[in-house]
Write a structure and sequence with these properties.
Length: 579
């Protein structure tokens, strides 16, 4: 009709309906053919409308790089998973991979970023093995991270045919990081992928935990022969000392978990000094058996200059004293954070002197004594635990002895007894628990605190099972009135530059009346001397006390979510005060 609006599509439609076009073919079939063409046209326009609608939506207006970053952030919160308990056959849920079915643009972006398919750790029990070709294709040449964890699963799952598919040579040749927490049959099957053409695989990171709690199993030869790993974790198996697996010059991270029934020789452990690229070394109950012929004279183990963290835990009771002796043999480069944890019992009274000598030597080293470029800036001390942080904040040293008892009935183990060996002259922040305060009072160790004259922040650590905190009051009184008669001391009062104080008050103000009175005395005394306290940190549950309205005129009161068995002066404590 003459009044119809012409569009760019009008000529195309008119051409399809012209006499010259319609004269071809049977007249009876023309309507059917036209209806079919109209249906096709409607479908094309419907798809075009959907695409235009999607492209006009906010998420599709984002650059592809931003969309890919959003997808990457989504991965840890929406992992694929499998329901293996409701039916005989597992039901797999795709998780974040569902984004490839939202719209064409999202699918194009997701399929075009190989790292989305190679970076996340693939729990092979959570993804159907039929996805393997797609994942290999989409990750392109980038290697994968695979995890097989059957330790908490039923035995029948180990027979799942999908596991063999994931652990096949075709997949493991493209695997960079492999975690195996399973039985030896599957570990052996996976190891067979490295027995041939081993130079072609990408594997640099291996974590093996066997399901044999006795640890009385040897790793398969193909695994023991891997000589180019950079990261290795071994648990519940015999450690293949001085074999290619543990002698890789590329090794930067090594964690070994031992058992007391399979103690290595001292020479075995000392061989780790040859790992020239090592940055992290963790030994858990790996305490060597010392040949009696060595007469207790253990040569030092000098670790590589690249080392940045050393962690040694000897938590088996039988390993306590041997573990302490073993720890004392390590020589670490400057800049290394050390964590030593020892549990055990001394069997002979004569061994007390051994413990004393080792603890004094270790604590002197851990507090950076004799190192000009590094000094202890923060110290947290509880009954059996010491934590020291360097002035650069990059070095954190921890020493802990738990459940360690001396046979002498009047003497328990208190870290503060070794205070003379600790370099505290440059401390800025000090945190102690009530046991330390009690021993300082009982042993009259006030003169040792004089060496910490630079401390500006003092925190009292809250105990898990809160004992009386009245012993903190004795320390507060000393901060008010203690004077030394030692002419060699640089100062005659305790912590003269103190500015911040943290006290773990409870909910009931009346129960802390004596401590509050001592606190007020300290505030007034320091103010009169021209060195006022500037901040008092308290638990939130004590924030309602009417006392604070008066004190706030002379000191800042900061309520926080007071931590338990940890320093109230760490950054985490202050972050929690705003939550």
């Amino acid at each position: 009709m003459s009044g119809d609006r012409l569009t760019p599509w009008s000529s195309s439609v008119d051409t399809r309906l012209s006499e010259s076009t319609l004269q071809h073919g049977s007249r009876q079939r023309r309507p059917e053919a036209l209806d079919s063409e109209l249906d096709d046209i409607h479908e094309v326009f419907r798809r075009a409308r959907r695409i235009l609608h999607n492209l006009s939506a906010g998420p599709c207006a984002l650059p592809s790089e931003v969309l890919a970053y959003i997808f990457e952030c989504l991965q840890p919160d929406w992992e694929p998973w499998a329901d293996r308990w409701s039916e005989d056959n597992p039901v797999f849920h795709s998780g974040w991979m569902c984004i490839t079915h939202v719209c064409g643009l999202w699918r194009k972006v997701a399929l075009g970023v190989p790292s989305l398919w190679s970076k996340p750790t693939i729990n092979v029990l959570s993804i159907n093995h039929q996805y393997i070709p797609d994942i290999l294709l989409r990750s392109r040449t980038q290697p994968l991270d695979l995890e097989v964890d059957l330790c908490d699963m039923e035995d029948g799952i180990a027979q799942d045919p999908g596991l063999n598919a994931w652990l096949s040579p075709a997949v493991l040749r493209h695997t960079r990081r492999l975690t195996l927490a399973t039985n030896m049959d599957l570990i052996t099957y996976a190891a067979s992928s490295f027995s041939e053409n081993s130079e072609r695989h990408f594997l640099t990171d291996l974590d093996v935990t066997t399901s044999d709690d006795s640890g009385n199993v040897d790793l398969p030869l193909p695994i023991r022969s891997l000589g180019n790993l950079s990261r290795l974790i071994l648990c519940d198996c015999r450690i293949p000392w001085r074999q290619p697996l543990l002698t890789s010059l590329n090794m930067t991270h090594l964690e070994l978990y031992g058992l007391r029934q399979h103690r290595p020789s001292y020479q075995d452990v000392a061989s780790l000094a040859g790992l020239s690229s090592l940055q992290v070394l963790e030994l858990w109950d790996v305490v060597p058996y010392v040949d009696p012929g060595m007469n207790g004279q253990l040569p030092p183990i000098v670790l590589a200059g690249s080392l940045r963290r050393l962690r040694i835990h000897a938590v088996e009771q039988e390993l306590g004293l041997d573990g302490l002796k073993f720890i004392s043999c390590f020589h670490t480069p400057p800049g290394t954070s050390c964590e030593y944890v020892v549990a055990g019992a001394i069997r002979l009274v004569s061994e007390e002197s051994i413990v004393d000598d080792i603890c004094k030597r270790l604590l002197s080293i851990l507090s950076f004594a004799g190192i000009e470029s590094v000094e202890a800036h923060e110290m947290d001390m509880s009954r059996r635990r010491l934590r020291l942080v360097s002035n650069t904040q990059s070095i954190v040293n921890i020493f802990k002895i738990s459940r360690f008892r001396r046979l002498h009935p009047m003497r328990g183990f208190y870290m503060v007894l070794y205070l003379p060996a600790i370099a505290i002259e440059r401390l800025h922040t000090l945190s102690i628990d009530v046991y330390i305060a009690y021993i300082i009072k009982a042993r009259a160790l006030w003169s040792e605190l004089l060496r910490a004259g630079g401390v500006r922040r003092l925190g009292f650590i809250k105990a898990k099972f809160q004992p009386s905190i009245l012993d903190f009051g004795v320390l507060l009184k000393a901060l008010c009135h203690y004077r030394t008669v030692d002419p060699s001391s640089d100062t005659d009062e305790l912590l003269p530059h103190l500015e911040t104080l943290a006290i773990p008050f409870g909910n009931d103000a009346a129960a802390h009346a004596d401590l509050i009175a001592t606190l007020i005395d300290l505030v007034q005394t320091r103010q009169a001397k021209g060195r006022p306290l500037r901040e008092l940190i308290i638990p939130r549950e004590a924030d309602h006390w009417t006392l604070w309205s008066t004190l706030r005129s002379v000191i800042t009161i900061t309520p926080i979510c007071y931590p338990v068995e940890d320093s109230p002066l760490t950054p985490d404590s202050f972050h929690s005060s705003t939550t």
